[in-house]
Specification:
The complex is a heterodimer. In chain A, helix 7 packs antiparallel against helix 12 (251-272). Chain A has helices at residues 2-5, 8-33, 41-59, 62-86, 91-114, 138-152, 156-174, 176-186, 188-193, 198-225, 236-246, 251-272, 275-278, 282-300. Chain A is globular and about 70 Å long. Chain A is an all-alpha fold. Chain A has a single domain (2-300), classed as ABC transporter involved in vitamin B12 uptake, BtuC (Orthogonal Bundle). In chain A, 74% of the residues lie in helices and 0% in strands. Chain B is α/β, with parallel strands linked by helices. Chain B folds into 2 domains: 38-147 and 287-311, Response regulator (Rossmann fold), CATH 3.40.50.2300; 150-285 and 328-358, Response regulator (Rossmann fold), CATH 3.40.50. Chain B has a 6-stranded parallel β-sheet with strand order 2-1-3-4-5-11, sandwiched between helices. In chain B, strands 7-6-8-9-10-12 form a 6-stranded mixed β-sheet, with helices on both faces. In chain B, strand 8 (238-242), helix 8 and strand 9 (260-265) form a beta-alpha-beta unit. In chain B, helix 5 packs parallel to helix 6 (188-204). The chains are: A mainly alpha, B alpha/beta. At the A-B interface, helix 2, helix 4, helix 5, helix 10 and helix 12 of A face helix 1, strand 7, helix 7 and helix 8 of B.
């Protein structure tokens, strides 16, 4: 039974499912490090997923769709930044409004563009990066099968998410940009007095988080399934928010936490295969990733410390 | 920026959001089609409340709407569909339609059962049709419209059970005697599909292993894909999904990994563009018939509430779709077995179990 659960596909599945979570979570990290709460990740992901399909359809290329998805996420990021930084609205309210807006807007635009609700027409997807055939026989064949599934089987955005996590982690703690970003979230007044523009810094952070949210959506539609379904993000944006907190507001931590959630989800699918052996209702397996979220947050929140100025609009002077 | 301007901008932003949202959830209004024929006219008004999947799910909400459209065409009734974006919308949507003077309201989906029971007594002059809803004590003005999904799925199971052994059917059929079922939520109508499918497969192939996986949602395509990939990884070469929009992802998985697919509720060969290369057949349930007949009974004044009605193989309430692109590949042996199974169900020699426990 264990050999049937722990197949190479289990780990590949975990990484695939972790990718949209991780991109959105790292977006959340960057946004919240600048002192702006971002619960709009769900909406950004949903809107990016939809606009990615629209872009791919009208521009005729999945890559163009990815760019459109990123820009759409940035547009929502701009709205969130304008509301929460310039207008100093409550950031949670602004984020909630964007989530609702995104749900309504994607449903509405689907009617306008595709002429029917539910699901868009299918579009071309991004292909896996590598297509190498290796040995199939013996121990070498088994080793290759594992290596191929776990390392070589993915589409471009999956690899890009890993790059974002590594580069983001390094940049946040080793570059001038990272220091400035963190100062905005910890003590914006101090940053302001040494000449860092709080408004500009926060604006760019929120917009970058929108770009990553949109890219997460593109991963769902343009890499995984090839069409958009209303509400298809299915609360991944909120799980991503939890991953960001569990990852202690660091890019690498966010990726790691997302991987944990992705693995829990992949594992529950495999465990369902043995429903007849384990004799537990399927609902029990389905709740595992969410139970894990609650346990992890309850255990981690005591130790994880949020940026000091998070959620507080900055008023100059 | 001064405070006044900020306030104005904030108000504008709120206004814009509300407008867009309101448009986004506005009810469907179909333009009447002018086909030159003198349309029949009736003063009966019929409406439906969708479940959270909404119109465009290519399965049961759309199927109900087809029934309404047929009633509009053939009986001249006025129709309307209101979409529920979450479970909390069920009650206000029913209130809205009842207060707008609709004579017959369809509430779509098992999840709306309790809401229908609660709301029907409030509007005694309105006829309620509960799609997929079994009423223990049916209200006098409500009828539960149920389908013997397990009977249709039983035939699909026969096809899959023999198909997985028949490598002449398609080169995607492998050596493993494994097929798969993907469910949306683990609720009775879906369980009926699962139980019928398994029973059908085992009736012709006792050793077959049926991998059954549930997504816990009808809307998550990516989840549907991962479930199907996992099943295919397990050796499944024919995948049957009764999972609403989630099942669309399972079709993608079949196309990617080389497996065949069996659709659900409607003939998905037509409703899912580009799926023909994997779409072996579909286990259909004819919501259109059930909905149309209910409206017709209201128009004729013969509506009888307080009961549950079952639509099965006998009255074409459920059935199997054509093989389409696999028409030439499906062997006579499979066709004969399907026909035999159909006869056995019709004459009562075989009783198809509607739950896992009765398998």
């Amino acid at each position: 039974m264990l050999a049937e659960i722990f197949t190479p596909d289990l780990f590949a599945s975990a990484i695939r499912m972790a990718t949209p979570l991780a991109l959105a979570a790292i977006g959340g990290t960057i946004c919240e490090r600048s002192g702006v709460v971002n619960i709009a990740l769900e909406g950004m992901m949903l809107f990016g997923a939809f606009m990615g399909v629209v872009g791919a359809m009208f521009l005729g290329s999945a890559w163009a769709g990815v760019l459109v998805a990123i820009m759409s996420g940035m547009a929502l990021g701009l709205i969130h930044a304008f509301a929460s930084i310039t207008l100093r609205t409550d950031q949670v309210v602004s984020g909630t409004a964007i989530n609702i807006l995104s749900l309504g807007l994607t449903g509405f635009l689907m009617e306008v563009i595709f002429g029917h609700p539910g699901t868009t027409d299918p579009v071309a997807r991004l292909k896996p990066v590598f297509d190498i055939s290796g040995p199939t026989e013996g121990a070498l064949g088994t080793a290759w099968r594992w290596f191929d599934a776990i390392v070589l089987s993915y589409t471009p955005i999956v690899y890009f998410a890993i790059v974002v996590a590594i580069v983001g982690q390094w940049a946040l703690f080793n570059t001038r940009w990272g220091l400035r970003l963190r100062s905005l979230g910890e003590h914006p007044r101090a940053a302001d007095t040494v000449g860092i523009s709080v408004v500009r810094g926060r604006y760019s952070a929120v917009i970058v988080s929108g770009a990553l949210g949109g890219l997460a959506g593109a991963n769902l539609t343009l890499e995984q399934v090839g069409s958009f379904t209303e509400g298809m993000t299915n609360a991944r944006g909120f799980i991503a928010l939890a991953a960001n907190i569990f990852g202690r507001w660091t890019p690498a931590g966010s990726y790691g936490a997302s991987l944990l959630f992705g693995f829990a989800d992949a594992l529950q699918i495999k465990l369902q295969l043995f429903r007849d052996v384990i004799r537990i209702p399927s609902q029990f397996f389905l709740m595992l990733p969410y139970v894990l979220t609650v346990i992890v947050l309850a255990g981690a929140v005591g130790r994880a410390v949020a940026p000091a100025a998070i959620g507080k609009p900055y008023e100059k002077g | 920026m001064d405070t006044k301007l900020r306030k104005v901008l904030a108000l504008l932003l709120v206004f814009a959001l509300v407008t867009v949202f309101a448009i986004g959830c506005a009810a469907e209004e179909e333009e009447p089609v002018d086909d030159g024929v003198e349309a029949p006219v009736s003063d009966v008004k019929a409406a439906m409340v969708t479940d959270v999947g909404g119109l465009g799910d290519k399965t049961f909400n759309d199927g109900t709407y087809e029934g309404l459209k047929r009633a509009e065409r053939e009986l001249g009734v006025e129709i309307r569909a209101i979409e529920s974006s979450e479970i909390a919308d069920y009650e206000p949507n029913i209130d809205q339609l009842a207060n707008a003077g609709f004579d017959v309201i369809f509430t779509v989906g098992f999840l709306m059962t309790d809401t229908t029971i609660k709301k029907a007594p409030d509007y005694p002059d309105v006829a309620f049709g509960g799609i997929d809803q079994f009423f223990e004590e049916p209200p006098d003005n409500a009828v539960g419209l149920l389908f013997n999904e397990h009977e249709g799925a039983y035939l699909a199971g026969v096809v899959a059970g023999l198909g997985t052994l028949d490598q002449d059917l398609d080169d995607r059929i492998n050596d493993d005697n494994v097929i798969a079922f993907i469910g949306g939520m683990d609720i009775p109508p879906v369980e009926k599909f699962e139980a019928g499918f398994i029973a059908g497969a085992r009736s012709v192939n006792p050793d077959v292993e049926v991998v059954a996986l549930y997504a816990g949602t009808f809307e998550d395509q990516a989840k549907g894909k991962e479930l199907a990939l996992s099943a295919i990884d397990q050796g499944a070469d024919i995948v049957f999904a009764a999972a609403g929009l989630t099942g669309l992802g399972s079709i993608t998985a079949c196309q990617e990994r080389g497996a065949l697919f069996i659709g659900v509720d409607v003939d998905q060969y037509f409703s899912v563009p580009g799926s023909g290369d994997v779409m072996l057949t579909s286990a259909m349930k004819s919501l259109e018939v059930a909905v149309f007949e209910t409206i017709k009974s209201v128009v004729d004044g013969t509506f009888v509430g307080g009961q549950n009605r079952f639509f099965g193989l006998a009255d074409d309430g459920v059935g199997l779709a054509p093989f389409h692109e696999f028409e030439d590949a499906v062997s006579q042996e499979i066709r004969d077995a399907v026909e035999e199974a159909r006869q056995n169900v019709l004459d009562g020699t075989v009783t198809v179990p509607p739950t896992r426990a009765e398998l």
